[in-house]
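Hey,
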Amino acid sequence: MAKLNTADFDGNSALEADILGMFRDMERLQTNLNKIISSYRSASLETPPNLSIGSDSKKIAYDAFTYTVRNDGKSKVADTLGVTLTGSDVPTNEWGAWAIDIDADGVITVEVAPDNATGYDLRRDGVVAIGDPQNNKVRLGYVAIRNKTGAYQPNTTDLTGADMVIYLSDDPDGYPQPEFTRFETNA
């Protein structure tokens, strides 16, 4: 919304003063509306889940963590076995990307980059394609995977296998360029 001040008016007109007053009221209304929307959509990660390769080496594990949805603090116990990545196979030497989210009921979901089937030249492109988490969900982080010698098949390809490059991020606030850690490569 445009900001107005008294310098925009010569101060001699009641109409000008009324318009200025309406703009100030609209700014206050916008501020209050933003606060209401923020409290309704309020979803944040309080402690990091420390994403890693699971004890099932085809999955992504996480440590115990806490999060907030609609100002209600929640906690989730660790899953060392891991979350199953889903979606299409990613072609050889291309990047695939996934986001891991949790909702107010503690249900973990995996968001898949829409073009994983054709792959991405850059891992960032896959992350950007995923977009923001849905309302009332908290983004735990991102996973970006490239297999240098064959297609990556979700829930089939061993993430600790040769020629796998895996980046994990616990930085959901860094979207669209979260800080990634090169977790493992056997290349």
